[in-house]
Amino acid sequence: MLTIRPRKIRIMAWSLAVLVVVAMVVVGLLLKQSNTGGVTFRTADQLAMIGLGLIIGGAILVLTRPYVRADAAGLVVRNLGGVKHIPWQVVRAVRFSGAVPWASLELQDDDELTLLAIQAVDGDAAAEATEGLRRLLEKSRAG
Question: Is 6:78 a contact under the CB 8 Å cutoff?
């Protein structure tokens, strides 16, 4: 089984999410000491700021969701939305060129499915992942 996840975007997303949460916690804790024009911030306002930081951090982590799992039977692709099960019989080709940021599957019905787990910014790892999928596709056709 071949499991592919993006690398650089995961590092960047986790770093940014932690930074946002820490910043919002700090702002939330310091908020009570701030008094602007007669408005005093209360504990509920502090908790709301911290909660907002957690929500924003969680939203950023959605970028870490994509993966591709492939074996002899086919692929399981999770992009930002749902999960799709794709048998090799409906895959015409695995495409990845330097002109696009992500790999894609060309399907028999002339549709195309983007593989967000294979990103050009990952360089050699993305190329190796693409070749691994191509080998599995060829194996499925030979067998």
Answer: no
Q: The whole model's pTM is what?
A: 0.79
The structural domains of the chain, with segments of one domain joined by +, span: 7-63, 65-142
Per CATH, domain 65-142 is 2.30.29.30? yes
Quick check: 70 and 96 in contact, CB under 8 A? no
Cβ atoms of residues 20 and 51 within 8 Å: no
The three-state secondary structure class of 111 is: coil
Q: What is the chain's length?
A: 143
**Confidence label for 38 from pLDDT (cuts 50, 70 and 90):** low
Give CA separation, 13 vs 20, 33, 51, 113, in Å. 10, 31, 18, 23
